[in-house]
Amino acid sequence: MCKLESLFILLLLFGKASLLNNGVARKPPMGWMSWGYYLCSVDCEKYPRKCLNEKLLLSVADMFYNRGYQEAGYEYIVIDDCWSEKRRSVNGRLVPDRKRFPKGMEAIAEYIHARGLKFGIYTNIADITCMHYPGSKGHFIEDAKMFAEWGVDYIKVDGCFVGEAYLNTAYIGFGQHLNNTGRPMVYSCSWPYYIEFIHKKTPDYATISRHCNMWRNYHDVVTSWDSIKDIIRHYQSSYDQLSPYHGPGHWNDMDMLIFGTDSLTESQSRVHIAVYAMMSSPLLLSCDMEKITEYERELLLNLELLAIAQDPLGIMAKPFELDNSITLWVKPHLPRKGNQYHSVSFALVNLEDRSSSASFIPGLYGLNSTEEYTVMDVFTKIFIRNVTLNDPISVTVPSEDVILYTLFPL
């Protein structure tokens, strides 16, 4: 570690450093990230159709620009681990792999920015990344400046191979150096994941939320329905711990969407995106964009669903257990009637492999207008009927599926 970084960590320990103040991620970021599907796919000669290279990033930018994703709010294109050469340059700088990124990252950022989109990149706070490429330990100041020079808008910072004490200072330190560049960059941390699942301690979310724009809480998503169910159940059981620190500028990150990977049925896809939207989680695809099905694209571009996901209030839906293994997720959001009557979305989620029925009374879950509410099915965009606070709503939820209603105050 260099002397400047050592000095900076001493300042942190004595409370002298300022907090994250970058003005970004006021809504959960939306876009695409390489890791979930492409992993560390660097053998482009052997696997040309699954290659982590310049062509891939530019093709995602073109897809966002040409097929309606950008207009719907998907804007970040983020390359994860394995983008660099195995060694830093003689002057200590990270170097993009010369074969896979011959024009360099600055040129890729310019291409992405020219289409009104934003560019993201990855590093680790250790000496090496999780896949053993050069990390940023000992280089926080110069790496932060370099990422700003390249036009980076989003940076995912991993936490492999370091101890608990270092995690609790390095993430704060690196974030401050990003601030000091003067370039707003979404700061995505894996800090609480490593504290809880590697070091077996309780994350200090009050501190984490003051220093990061978003953070990973749970294991990496993999391309399977079981993985999605595990993630949903984790957030359901952790709601009380996580919800107080979630909102504009600082988000719990449920990890990537696995659409376009042939991993989910249509009903499972509905559950996947509905719960993420209700939770105000970032929506970051990880797939070959050419493999997104027409139905998946319809879900991704459903503006009623995205309005829930991107609501400016940024409230994390609260889960309630109903009968027959149905979980009711409840989220107040805009538009409001006057200053006090929120619209509220209700997601009735069935993770089991059998259909189940349940009933709920809206007035027991935060609705407070004595006038009627109109009920819209978010997936079909059809207004079903009007209800009062005390009118029960009864549904049968098919196996591994969700019913998603928004109630608007009249």
Describe what this molecule looks like in 3D.
- The protein is globular and about 70 Å long.
- 32% of the residues lie in helices and 21% in strands.
- The longest helix has 17 residues, at 164-180.
- Helix 5 links the parallel strand 2 (76-78) and strand 3.
- The N and C termini lie far apart (60 Å).
- The protein is built from 14 helices and 16 strands.
- Helix 1 (3-13) packs across helix 7 (164-180) and helix 12 (266-278) packs parallel to helix 14 (303-309).
- It has helices spanning 3-13, 35-38, 54-66, 69-72, 104-114, 140-150, 164-180, 191-198, 205-211, 225-237, 239-242, 266-278, 294-300, 303-309; strands at 30-33, 76-78, 118-124, 154-158, 186-189, 214-216, 251-253, 283-285, 318-321, 326-337, 341-350, 356-360, 373-377, 382-387, 393-397, 401-409.
Give a quick summary of the entry.
With 410 residues, the chain is an alpha/beta fold.
